Amino acid sequence: MNDVLLIALFAFLGAAAAGLLGAGVLRLLRHRSLVVSLSVVAGVAVAAMLAGTLTVAWAMFLSSHDLYVVTTVVAMAALVSLATAVLLGRWVAAHSRELTLATRSFGDGGTFAAPAGQPTAELAELARELAATSAKLDSSRERERALEASRRELVAWISHDLRTPLAGLRAMAEALEDGMAADSGRYLRQIRTEVERMNGMVGDLFELSRIQAGSLTLTLARISLYDLVGDALAGVDPLAREHGVRLIGDRIDEVPVEVDGKEMSRVLGNLLINAIRRTPPDGTVAVAAHRSDGGVVLSVTDGCGGIPEEDLPRVFDTGWRGSHARTPPAGAGLGLAIVRGIVEAHAGRAEVRNVQGGCCFSVTLPAA
After folding, report:
1. How far is CA 359 from CA 208, 306, 309, in A?
2. How many CB atoms lie under 10 A from the CB of residue 165?
3. Rounded to an integer, what distance in angstroms lies between the CA atom of residue 170 and that of residue 344?
């Protein structure tokens, strides 16, 4: 038993010496190629076996012939091990370079295509993660392009909508200044109307900028949805009468919600005003609210005739109008973008779908 322990001790000391030497070499070459690292690992394994074997052989006082045979066997094993390590390292390194080139392509704006036949599970997992990241980047680029196009469109429309009333205000001011206005009272009323319209546009821009900057501060309070909708309907009733549109709000459940009353009133007001202006005379705008599994759902249904299917995903985009009309009721295309921003700030969601004769805008809020 003592001889076995002694042999194990000598073998361990020889292998440990080779292992420590190999660890030092690996540390020095840690920034080199994988081929070098694998070769060093294989060399360390063989050297540890050789060192342990030679140490035990020396301790056992083997003959020169026996020691030569052992050394030859270990040397052949070392040669095969190093060749295998080099081949494996070159294979893995080649696939790693392919993966690097593929990664560089989607980093430069392209789409990542994973090379076929990854040699290791780790590289295969890395390729899958890179493919998923590439898909997310493509989606982000598409959103960024859509947002940039929306911003440019918004700037162009806002510039037009501001320039038109400013030109009219300038003409009316010059007429009043030169004493050429036959009915100065009418001119002054028109000036006030245009100023109020411009003030509303600037207010919408300010509200949208706060939403997009994430600086919208909510003051939450527990409010009855019935009261919230009732106040909103009362506020837009004169506009509905002016357009000959009937308002229906008899399907409102008295469910509580925890919201910012002022901001949610703006949401309802924007949806109702938009619905009234898009509904033809003698049409109907219906408001409904009920509790569902996902929270509290508030919907506004109009008689606009429906929205083209290709435009439905863009309805809540900044600057979307649904038509190229330049008349004042067309607005600046900010109302629905503000609606979505406020609703999402309440951890809710805003959606739209076509129904018979029109479309239905729905707002889902967390239940109180």
Report:
1. 24, 5, 11
2. 18
3. 40
Tens digits of per-residue pLDDT, 235-287?
A: 899 999 999 999 988 888 888 888 888 888 989 998 999 899 889 998 999 99
Please, are residues 344 and 337 in contact by the beta-carbon 8 Å criterion?
no
Does the pLDDT value for residue 102 go beyond 70? Answer: yes
Does residue 157 contact residue 322 with C-beta atoms inside 8 Å?
Answer: no
278: which residues sit within 8 A by CB, 6+ positions away?
302, 303, 304, 322, 358
**Burial state string for 24-36 with b = 16 or more CB within 10 A and e = fewer than 16:** ebeeeeeeeeebb
Distance CA 276, CA 335 (A): 13
Strands 349-355 and 358-365: antiparallel
Q: Which of 332, 252, 336, 337 is nearest to 297 (CA)?
A: 252
Amino acid identity at 9: L
* Residues in contact with 326: Cβ distance below 8 Å, sequence separation at least 6, in sequence order: 160, 161, 164
DSSP string covering 171-238:
HHHHHHHHT--S-HHHHHHHHHHHHHHHHHHHHHHHHHHHHHHT-PPP--EEEEHHHHHHHHHHHHHH
Report the distance separating Cα 164 and Cα 114, nearest Å.
54
Q: Which DSSP state fits 1?
A: -
CA distances from 329 to 35, 139, 230 (A): 71, 34, 24
d(CA 44, CA 41): 5
**Terminus-to-terminus CA distance in the chain, angstroms?**
78
Give 146-201 pLDDT, tens digit per residue. Answer: 777 767 766 776 776 777 778 888 888 888 887 777 777 888 888 888 888 788 77
pTM (whole model) above 0.85: no
Task: Give the C-alpha separation, 100 to 341, whole Å.
Answer: 40
Q: How far apart are CA 34 and CA 95, in angstroms?
A: 12
Q: How far is Cα 331 from Cα 311, in angstroms, rounded to an integer?
A: 18
Instruction: Give, for 288, the enclosing helix (H) or strand (E).
Output: strand 284-292
The CA-atom distances, in angstroms, between 309 and each of 243, 278, 306, 316, 322 are 27, 17, 9, 14, 12
